[in-house]
């Protein structure tokens, strides 16, 4: 997936870190949990990948050889253009000591409260069939070229949260890089609880690395009215972009309730 890069301003503020808890820094455009002292993620940051490809033993071996062993893998609950995750794949991933980030694919029509509810109910049906327990995060994939509005975001949030799952959105946070930023702020204005959602940020896109040389955790967040809104706890920092190993590269705070 091709992502558009943007410029952003980072204003340094004091960041307090308590062991096991990452605090989001209120800044314009960016919300970054900064871990200094090493180019590798710190102990409370997990390194992982996401892919539209089925995770088989041979594919996982390829990932390990090319980039390292992921601590989590993002896979899709439902999809049209590629194979979504099934129970045997999930069982295999778990058997390797790897956790799963469940993602609902973007089917378009990300407009209107009713469509948000329908999209969420489809994700819940798949989650229940796979045995994904309540409390686990479910990410809604909203691509940069997708039309999206506050109603859709609210419909997804209300349905997923009422079902007992943690709510997440995969999004481009930079103003002008997608329609999500303004739609999310409008949704939070109507229902402040939506501001508690976990954001899977695609920016900045710094390029793919291996696990051993992953960057310090620094995803961009969303600023609504000058206040950081949502929790940028997952960062897709490297895109596949036609690579022979069809994976995007991610980091996530260990507090994210993966499966």
Could you walk me through the main structural features you see in this protein, from its secondary elements to its overall organization?
With 259 residues, the chain is α/β, with parallel strands linked by helices. It has five helices and ten strands, in the order E-H-E-H-E-H-E-H-E-H-E-E-E-E-E. It is globular and about 45 Å long.
Offer a few descriptive terms.
two-stranded antiparallel sheet, alpha/beta, 5 helices, 10 strands, TIM Barrel, disordered N terminus, 20% strand, 259 residues
- Spell the H/E element sequence: EHEHEHEHEHEEEEE
In angstroms, what separates the terminal alpha carbons? 24 Å
Please work out how many helical segments DSSP would assign. Answer: 5
Number of domains: 1
Q: What is the percent of helical residues?
A: 10-25%
Tell me the CATH topology. TIM Barrel
Q: What can be said about this structure in brief?
A:
The chain is an alpha/beta fold. It is built from five helices and ten strands. 47% of the residues are buried.
Topology:
Blueprint: E1 45-50, H1 57-66, E2 72-76, H2 87-95, E3 99-104, H3 113-130, E4 137-141, H4 150-162, E5 166-171, H5 180-190, E6 198-201, E7 222-224, E8 227-229, E9 231-238, E10 248-253
Parallel strand pairs: 1-2, 2-3, 3-4, 4-5, 5-6, 6-9
Antiparallel strand pairs: 1-10, 7-8, 9-10
Helix pairs in contact: 3-4, 4-5
